[in-house]
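[worker-b] picked up task from shared queue
[worker-b] task type: protein-ligand structure
[worker-b] ligand name resolved to flavin mononucleotide; SMILES cross-checked against name lookup, match
[worker-b] sequence length check passed
[worker-b] input payload:
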Amino acid sequence: MGRTLNLLPATALDYRRLAEARLPRFLFDYIDGGANDERTLASNVDDFAKVLIRQRVLCNVDHLDTSTSIAGCPASMPLVLAPVGMAGLFGRRGEVQGVRAANKAGIPFTLSTVGICPLDEIQAAASAPFWFQLYMIRDRGVIRDLLDRAMASGCDTLLFTVDLPMPGMRHRDTRNGMLGSGMKSALGKAWQLGTRPGWVWDVGINGKPHSFGNLAHVVPDPTDLAAFGSWINQQFDTSVTWKDIEWLRGIWKGKLLLKGIQEVADARSALDVGADGLVVSNHGGRQLDGVASSIAKLPAIAEAVGERLEVLMDGGVRSGVDVFKAVALGARAVLIGRPWVWAMAGAGEQGLGDLLATFKRELEIAMALSGVTRIEQISRANIDSMPW
Ligand SMILES: Cc1cc2nc3c(=O)[nH]c(=O)nc-3n(C[C@H](O)[C@H](O)[C@H](O)COP(=O)(O)O)c2cc1C
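[worker-b] inference finished, payload out:
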C-alpha cells in the first residue's frame, strides 16, 4: 500500500502497514523482526512463492467446502491463530480480540504462555475451546499449575514449544531497547510513544493491566519488561530433553502438539514420546537464523510421520493460497502469527475478522481452480513444481 493508507486493507501486508502506522516502533519491530540477519524469516515467505500450483478447469466445483478438523476440533478451514506473546500490547486486550475473531471465523485460537490476558479472561471471552501454548520452565511446579489452570479453563490442546531453550538474537529489539532497562532505552521508547498518541490512549492507558496474565504470580514485576527478560533467562529450561516431554505426556491428558520441529529425526522422536502431533516451525524465523524455511521442511516430515501424527506447519503463511500450498504438501492445517497480529493491531477485531474471511475466500478460489471441492482432496498432485 505504500503511502496509500487511506485505501481499504485487503491483504496481510496491507494490515502490516496499518500496524506500522499505529504502533510505537519498538513494538512494531518486535512483531516484524526475526533473528540475526532475518534470512530464515525472509525464506519462510519467499519459499511459498516458489511452490507452483497445477491449474485444472471444468471440474464442477459447485459445492466447495473448506471445513476440516484439527487435533479433533471441527474448524471452518485448516487455519489456527498461532501463540503470540504480549499480544495485549499490540491491541487493547489483544488476546481477547484474537479469540473472539477466531471463534467467529470458526478456527482455533492459541493463547501464549507470555500472553497479556490470563486464561480466565480468555475463557470468559471465548465461545469455543481454545488452545494453550507452553514453554518448558525450570520450576516444574509452575508447569503443573499452568496445565491444571489451562485444563480448568477448557483448553484441551496444548502446543508445547520446543525451539526456545533460549531466546534468539533479535537485533531490532536490541537497537530499540525493547527489553533494556537503562536511561537510553527508556528515553528512546518514550520518544516513540510520543509519536503514537492513539496507541498510548487506546492500549497504553485503557488496555491495562499489562502484566503477563498467566505468570503474574511468578514473575517478580510483570510490568517491567527488563525484569521479565531476566526471568526468562533464568527460568526457560536449557536442559530440557525428550525425557521431559515424556514426563509432560504423562501429566497432560489433552492433545499434545510439539511446536518447533524441523527435522524428520525429531518428528520420529515426537511420535515415540506419544505426542498427538507437531508443528513444523522455526518460530517465524525468530530463533536460529540460517535454518531452512518451514514450507521446505514440511514435505519430508509429512511423508515420514503424517499418517500417525497430525502435522501442522507455520512460518510465512500470508494468504489462503499459501494455506492451500501447505495442505497440498502434507499439512493438516497451518498457523499464522504475524498476519493475525498485524490485522488486530492495525484494524482491531473487525480487521482480523476481515482478514480471516479473505484467507477463506482465497483458499476457496485456489481449490476451485485446482479442481477440488473438499480439503481432504487436496494433495501433492495439485502441486506443479517446487525447488526442493
Ligand atoms: C511477536 C511474536 C511473538 C511470538 N510469541 C510466541 C510465543 O509466545 N510462543 C510461541 O510458541 N511462539 C511465538 N511466536 C511464534 C509464532 O507462534 C509462530 O510460530 C510464527 O509467528 C509463525 O510465523 P509467521 O509470523 O510468519 O506466521 C511469536 C511470533 C511473533 C511474531
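[worker-b] attaching auto-annotations
[worker-b] Residues 136 and 237 are 6 Å apart (CA to CA).
[worker-b] releasing lock
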